[in-house]
Amino acid sequence: MDNTTSQNDSAMSEHVISEVDERGVATVTLNRPEVHNAFDDVLINSLTQTFTRLGADDSIRAVILASKGKSFCAGADLNWMKRMAGYSYEQNLNDANALANMLHTLNTLPKPTIARVQGAAFGGAVGLVACCDMAIGSKMSKFCLSEVKLGLIPATISPYVIQAIGERNARRYFTTAEVFSSRRARRIGLLSESVTEEELDSTIESLLEHILKNGPNAVTAAKQLIADVANRVPDDALRNMTSERIANTRVSSEGQEGLGAFLQKRRPNWYIS
């Protein structure tokens, strides 16, 4: 991307690189290619800080989650796992809560999020993909919920993965720990698109072009609307809530700008081509 600004979001490491281009598109890059971007407590903390900062920044229009090297993310770091093996229950609980908090922060980030997936996405990495609003994967990428092979379970990522792939598919892949293809990931809903390696960036750019034409506050509100409406019965309370949401949106400054631009046949002031 042209005209980007970079920031290392943790004083403890350079494992997460954050770049923002002139359009307000942030790219968060896992930067541990020597260990296939496996995550540990330091990386988890860095990601939480980064997602929190970007979510609070009104200038950010969208967030891409990417990684350097051959793999998107190989799951848990081996040295971290060795340390965890000697942890007490309380220490393990603290570690798990940190991971759960990072995933929640990504899942609820009030900007559109897009995962850029190449190579292996194993274990907790499947959770990262599931937490993003959209996920574009290379046809060569592979996925695995590998926890049970180690006598563990995919606990903290489970709410997001089950939401993405459904209970029936989760029953299979949580218990078999089999590796599945990008094509299969697309079919079960983990990936939005499965494309060639060369098409990854252009496919993501096409999504960004659509996002950047839309009202940024409306995009945030639409994402929150999904979270608030999903799996609810359409009763009086829900009908009243949705009516209030659209009424508030119509009288907002952004809603007025959008309606005015439409009626006057001009581009709204947030439009980026």
TrEMBL record:
Pfam family name, one = ECH_1
Molecular function terms from GO: catalytic activity
Write down the InterPro entries for this protein, in alphabetical order.
ClpP/crotonase-like_dom_sf (IPR029045), Enoyl-CoA_hydra/iso (IPR001753), Enoyl-CoA_hydra_C (IPR014748), Enoyl-CoA_Hydratase/Isomerase (IPR051683)
Q: Which CDD domains match?
A: crotonase-like
Among SUPFAM superfamilies, the record links this protein to: ClpP/crotonase
In terms of domain of life, where is this protein from?
Bacteria
Biological process GO annotation list?
isoprenoid catabolic process
Question: Which family does the record claim for this protein?
Answer: Belongs to the enoyl-CoA hydratase/isomerase family.
Which PANTHER family does the entry mention? ENOYL-COA HYDRATASE, POLYKETIDE BIOSYNTHESIS ENOYL-COA HYDRATASE PKSH-RELATED
Q: Protein name, please? A: Enoyl-CoA hydratase
